[in-house]
Specification:
The structure is a single chain. This protein is mainly alpha-helical. The chain has 2 domains: about 260 residues, Glycerol uptake facilitator protein; about 35 residues, no CATH class. Helix content is about 65%, strand content about 5%. The protein has 15 helices and 3 strands. Strands 1-2-3 form a 3-stranded antiparallel β-sheet, with no helix packed on it. The longest helix has 30 residues. The radius of gyration is 25 Å and the shape is globular. This is Transporter, probably Formate efflux permease. InterPro entries: Aquaporin-like (IPR023271), For/NO2_transpt (IPR000292).
Length: about 350
């Protein structure tokens, strides 16, 4: 038997007659059609998020094993997007900062720049490009569920970092041989690079400041990706708004993103305006902070929070049988279960807890 499936039709070919069934095309990515989200599990509403992320992780693991070239291409595109939109951010900031006679012009420029920069994440998501900071969440969930070892997950992150830097380098080289960032724009970039490397010259307090800013930055990025992956959002416009707002928050607050900073250092570095050692040190601290914010606070935290095999003790006590309450679809399913499966505690305490946990709540 051969199974061919595309977005329009489902064709099953056997030794006998061929049957073709029209399957109603699923919602295409980017269609913006608002479809009702499927119901969530009452006890573990985040398990669809975990399942989706694990599917994404499996594809990344496959690509980094047998399709490394294509994986690097996707990572390079992500670096390219970050470079273009981060440059646009500085262009807007510089243009409005050059209007000292206009009250609030600098603030308007920063707001517009931050909003514009947010669309880089949207393009990365919808083009299936590979960004280091969001992959930190993905590999952490994969490692927790033993799809990969923590050590091997470094390969995925390492290849992604290389690709992101290649994309940033392409942008930096192109800008070096153009006048796009001449004048006030380059001055803004040099000033920002000096501030980001300056953390390391301020001792422990400066390093911790950089580290905390990096944590908060990737927390913002990955809380947006959590919302995109959790299955509750089916409208593309809403997804875009969430991603843009998340990036706006970190850009407006001056939080630190390892790939954006790397691209910035590459651009000003080709103009001879940054200390290479301080730049590398700054990126190293930022990567560690980004991993804590995205890999641990979002990835590992939500993996543990939605692990169905480690139920709350009350749920296990209340059930007492060979199954957990999370194995039942609803209260009626629990009531119709074989008493032997429920166990003694399940028959005594189970109906009370099952009613509150499995029954729909207003």
């Amino acid at each position: 038997m051969r199974l061919d499936k595309n977005i329009e039709t489902l064709t099953i070919q056997t030794d006998g007659p061929v049957t073709v069934a029209q399957s109603g095309a699923p919602e295409a990515q980017g269609s913006g059609v608002d479809q009702p989200a499927p119901p969530m599990h009452p006890l573990f509403p985040g398990r669809r998020f975990i399942s989706t992320v694990l599917d994404v992780f499996d594809s990344k693991q496959e690509m980094t094993g047998h399709l490394i070239g294509k994986y690097l291409q996707r990572a390079t595109m992500a670096g390219f997007f970050v470079g273009i939109f981060f440059t646009t951010y500085f262009a807007l900031v510089a243009r409005f900062a050059a209007m000292p006679d206009v009250p609030g012009a600098a603030l308007v420029g920063k707001v517009l720049g931050s909003l514009t920069f947010g669309w880089a994440l949207v393009l990365i998501y919808y083009t299936n490009s590979e960004l280091l900071t969001s992959n930190m969440m993905v590999v952490s969930i994969g490692a927790y569920h033993k799809r990969i070892t923590w050590l091997r997950s470094l390969k995925i992150l390492g290849l992604c970092l290389v690709g992101n830097l290649l994309g940033g380098l392409v942008i930096a080289v192109l800008l070096r041989f153009s006048s796009v960032v001449d004048g006030d724009i380059l001055a803004q970039m040099v000033s920002a690079a000096a501030m980001k490397t300056g953390y390391l010259t301020q001792g422990f307090a400066g390093v911790m400041d950089l580290f905390v800013r990096a944590i908060l930055c990737n927390f913002c990025i990955n809380i947006a990706m959590l919302m995109v992956y959790n299955g509750k959002l089916t409208n593309d416009f809403t997804k875009c708004v969430i991603m843009v707002v998340a990036v706006f928050v970190f850009a407006f607050l001056g939080l630190e993103h390892s790939i954006a900073n790397s691209v910035l250092f590459l651009i000003v570095g080709l103009h001879g305006a940054v200390d290479p050692l301080l730049a590398v040190g700054s990126i190293a601290v930022t990567i560690l902070g980004n991993f804590v914010g995205g890999g641990l606070l979002i990835g590992l935290n939500f993996a543990v929070m939605n692990d169905e095999e480690r139920h709350h003790p009350l749920v296990r006590l209340a059930h007492g049988g060979s199954k957990n309450l999370g194995d039942y679809e609803d209260f009626e399913d629990f009531e119709n279960e074989d008493p032997a499966e429920k166990g003694y505690c399940g028959r005594i305490f189970g109906p009370i807890s099952a009613h509150f946990i499995l029954s729909p709540q207003d």
